[in-house]
Hints:
two-stranded antiparallel sheet, 9-stranded mixed beta sheet, alpha/beta
Amino acid sequence: MGGVTSSMAAKFAFFPPNPPSYKLITDDATGLFLMDPFPHRENVDVLRLPTRRGNEIAAVYVRYPMATTTVLYSHGNAADIGQMYDLFIELSIHLRVNLMGYDYSGYGQSSGKPSEHNTYADIEAAYKCLEENYGTKQEDIILYGQSVGSGPTLDLAIRLPQLRAVVLHSPILSGLRVMYPVKRTYWFDIYKNIDKIPLVRCPVLVIHGTADEVVDCSHGRQLWELCQEKYEPLWLKGGNHCDLELFPEYLRHLKKFITSVEKSPSRRSSSRRSTDRIERPRRSTDCFEAPRKSTDRRERPRKSTDRPEKLRLHEYKFNNMDKLEKFKTSFDQMEKSRRSVDYHEKSRKSIDQQLERARKSVDWLDRIRVG
């Protein structure tokens, strides 16, 4: 049952145009790839990219002068980059971005067969090309996933911590949930976006038509609710699955979103700043050496506090010595006074004794006279 259901989900997921809408030819003069029947443009590169699963996918890279942002576009079902070519050019011009679009394995002029895991390898090859061939930084990339393209978009998004932003256009919760209203995720399901969206750490814009007959609008609403960093969604009233680009609000809202995320600090620089903030405590710990030294300097005030102590002690000793000296002087004076009093006391006693002897002597003479 699981294998049958998985096969049914895969059949829903992949409808490559047959025949492809374009051919790849090599220009004899330059050796460059060209997309037939489209005229060559100086600002468009046509590429063939090897994937880690042994396939070779077709891709186009559209340059916009002085652009700082690059959109990596994963298209929906029943389409290839030939059918998306004109839209890619228009989006690049109106949004003022570089844009890379690619075909999944088995789509357009890409080799191999379409499968969930092949699409993961396909988007990785496109991303690797942006980094290595065009020098695009992760924090300058916006991943754009339309319909089934939301699968490889979210799978890559959860592995890019510095990613600038994500756009989900008519996204699916999972392959199985498009066909059956299941409430849980089964092992045989494909593109389990419902489980991956909470892990995306950058701003996410969800665009969905309210009259979508292929992927119900509830898919987009539920994915938006599960986002970590939500951006104002765009629910296009009356929009179906393949006509959202025709609504004026579509381009206007998308441009507003890109302008917003371009103005916000990049995740790498904010991460660097947060790293700096982490470093600052470490530096401030080094700077805490200054407070520690200032603590040592605070010892000096304590020493200087000791000096007033010594000064006060010295003053105390000085004052006490002065008092002692004064006390000693007064004591000496008292002693002199006492001695003087003693001396006068002795003198007075001596006089009294002399008077007493004289009186006795007079009394003796009076007795002789009487006798």
